[in-house]
Design a protein that fits this description.
2 copies of one chain form a homodimer. The first copy, chain A, is α/β, with parallel strands linked by helices and 222 residues long. Chain A has helices at 10-21, 33-38, 40-48, 76-83, 117-124, 139-143, 161-174, 189-205, and strands at residues 2-6, 25-30, 53-56, 66-69, 91-94, 99-100, 108-109, 129-133, 153-158, 178-183, 210-216.
């Protein structure tokens, strides 16, 4: 697939790198490509992923079968606006979290409960086909859940069933074996609010090398 | 142990009944004992648990080694006020959730992110030793997690390490094999906000016969 990954931080590199390894045709969108290319952590990564194009946000989503939002929650709406009209009609996998670091550790959420970041993105880009997913785990687990040594769960939320099917198939390629479709995009409030538990669990365990598994009892087994 | 369970709804009955089965000395506190005793669902349960005393809130916690708050989130502060000064110095296991049903399904939370129901309880009863736990699963799983057929996770949060140790030991008696101590009572915001994901997962799966397991990767294994 032709995939555009928006964002060149740790999440963007992990996702773009893994999709490149899987043989997808990957473009990365960033605010200032020259500045990003000059960063040490990006340069080191780029030598392993020479086939990944690095371009400015504007136009980066043109022709993409799938766009991945790996932007920080605090800049996602501004940066998606720079991507522009190419988002119309496209599947937009939203991996971001509405983390508010202004109050220190642990972060709070700048939107929750009666709205979500995914819904804000959808309202700002009503013709995009937004699917919330993967925001409930760290980037290493996102792209290689099998490393945990045991099946764990990933969620999808979105109003477009066909878009969710495409995203779910890609999650399978990454190694996700238990994909729970929560329903419409409103349900993204659940995985986003889970971050409050995720960050505290990471502190308690002393690391983020974990994921949750939804263990079903007898009545819910297929 | 001498245990007082506050609340006589489904959670209270499940917890009090199981603790009675385990051989604990159980008292249930309720607003109007005669009215509760007259309810069909209580009467049916009480025939199986003749040793459990049903008393009014006032005085119900006197002499208890542990008090379990199984009250609905919307009435917990009012009803704890009726329990009165006997809460001072006692371990108070808080199982409640701040569910706001006024907006329909799914419920919202009437406190979150910068505060929690557990912290409100602690502030209202500064001498109680509040431990948040068990609020992340249905009552059948609370009292018998082994029925799921696989280990799953329960969390504890509280400012009093000795109180958390007592509660954790009791969780072990119920069959909980993975107890994560999140830290101080502030961390109760995490398990409480998880409810937003729990309710949507229950809708998606078509039932609440599940629990989450924190699957650790290699770096976090003991």
């Amino acid at each position: 697939m032709k995939i555009t990954v928006l964002g060149t931080g740790a999440v963007g590199r992990a996702v773009a790198g893994r999709l490149d390894d899987l043989g997808h045709d990957v473009t990365m969108g960033t605010r200032e490509p020259a500045a990003t290319a000059g960063r040490e952590e990006h340069a080191a990564w780029a030598t392993q992923h020479a086939g990944v194009r690095l371009v400015a946000f504007a136009g980066s989503a043109a022709g993409a079968d799938l766009v991945v939002n790996a932007l920080g929650g605090d800049v996602v709406l501004d940066n998606l606006a720079l991507v522009g009209p190419d988002l119309a009609g496209r599947i937009l996998a939203d991996l971001s979290n509405p983390l508010d670091h202004s109050q220190g550790i642990p972060p709070r959420l700048f939107v929750k409960d009666d709205d979500s970041l995914a819904e804000r993105i959808q309202r700002a880009h009503p013709d995009a086909r937004v699917v919330k997913t993967l925001n409930t785990m760290n980037n290493a687990v996102m792209v290689d859940p099998a490393q945990l040594g045991e099946s764990s769960t990933v969620f999808v939320s979105g109003d477009d069933p066909a878009a969710k099917a495409v995203v779910s198939a890609l999650l399978g390629e990454l190694g996700h074996t238990d994909v729970i479709d929560l329903g419409g995009l409103e349900t993204a409030r659940g995985p986003e609010m889970f971050l409050a538990l995720w960050v505290r669990t990471a502190v308690a365990l002393g690391g983020s090398d974990f994921n949750i598994k939804v263990v079903r009892g007898p009545s819910l087994r297929g």
